[in-house]
Amino acid sequence: MMGVVNRLSVICAILYMAAVFAFAEPLIAMMGGTGGALAYGVRYFRICTVGAFFWIYGLAGNMIIRAEGRMKTAAWMMGSGLIVNAVFNYIFMAILDMGVEGAAWGTNVGMFVYTLIGWLYFGRGKATFQAKLLSFKGDKKISTSILRLGMSSLIMSVMSLVQGLVVFNALARYGTTADIAFYGVVYRIFQFLLTPIFGLMRALQPVIGINYGAKQYDRVISSYKIFAVAALMLTLPFWIISLAAPGSILGLMLKDQAFTGRQFAYFRVYMAILPALSFIFMAMTLFPSVDKGKPAMIIGMARQFVFYIPAMLLLPKFIGVGGVYYGSFAIDAVIVLWTMIMVKKEFNGLRGKKDVKASV
């Protein structure tokens, strides 16, 4: 197992570092970075990339620990890395006055500690399997399963980058610098409100995987529903506040700025779909966990290639920057409906397996 993790981590880190160091500037520029922002962005991006191996290896190791069912252990490891990150950000930026470079190096130190804790966990024999830390021995079957089941997540990550490039280019072409800054704030708030959902996704994966492996199909179905509803309930209060008092939420990020009624409308439209996304993200965990990565991959690719990119290229051309917000809402609404149809179909299949098992 660790041989596969070590090998894939090194390969992915090398490929990622080579790509970023070669194309950091054009990538930042494509996202709307110009002048000083471009220079700062490139420096931050490249320094963070120095720690690429720790980002990849640390996360891979933490995923294995979660798959063992040791969610508390995985959580405190991640929390330790975040605390170290925050402490060193303060040291490098506030005390040593290293600026944006200090923020990047602080992040790398945090990820190094995060990785080191995981490495010690495996090295001290606390894992449920024999972990050979320095092994680079491959396993074709495991590697194939990782690539097949992880392809949907990989595609979604790549498509998120593509999405950002398309959106920021549209805003740069049809809007102003203020429009770019406003969208950046809206997006950051949106991602922050998704944090509880991401956490529950991580917790749901081993629950579904273990029950599916034990052929407890009713528990697979009930687990999905419980986690999806829990994610919905966690995001609902923040969603209501965002819609009811958008000025207060936006003011946390853009202080002393007067917002227009149109900007409030854009913010509300962008946030409107948030509660329903609980069911999409849990479905993205459900399908790979029941050994069906293909549906998740299809949904992810269709969202970006079939819907998102064409919409972001066309709508702003006709209705301006509002096309980014209205288009995002419409696309996600379609994806929610499509995903729920696929989830229902999967549940019917699981119930059929249960009936066959009962008859035997």
Strand-helix topology:
Blueprint: H1 2-30, H2 35-50, H3 52-67, H4 71-95, H5 99-123, H6 140-174, H7 177-193, H8 195-213, H9 217-244, H10 246-251, H11 261-271, H12 277-289, H13 293-319, H14 322-359
Helix pairs in contact: 1-2, 1-3, 1-6, 2-5, 3-4, 3-5, 4-5, 6-13, 8-9, 8-12, 9-12, 11-14, 12-13, 12-14, 13-14
Q: Can you put this structure into words, describing what you see?
A:
The structure is a single chain. With 360 residues, the protein is mainly α. The chain has two domains: 1-138, no CATH class; 149-360, no CATH class. It is 85% helix and 0% strand. It has helices at residues 2-30, 35-50, 52-67, 71-95, 99-123, 140-174, 177-193, 195-213, 217-244, 246-251, 261-271, 277-289, 293-319, 322-359. The longest helix has 38 residues, at 322-359.
At a glance:
With 360 residues, this protein is mostly helical. The chain has helices at residues 2-30, 35-50, 52-67, 71-95, 99-123, 140-174, 177-193, 195-213, 217-244, 246-251, 261-271, 277-289, 293-319, 322-359.
The rounded Rg comes to: 22 Å
Number of strands: 0
Total of domains: 2
Percentage of residues in DSSP E strands: under 5%
Overall average residue pLDDT: 84
Please give the largest β-sheet: none
Termini distance? 35 Å
Count of DSSP-assigned helices: 14
- What's the assembly state of these chains? single chain
Structural class: mainly alpha
**Regions with pLDDT < 50 over 5+ consecutive residues?**
none
| Strand/helix succession | HHHHHHHHHHHHHH
Name the shape in a single word.
Answer: globular
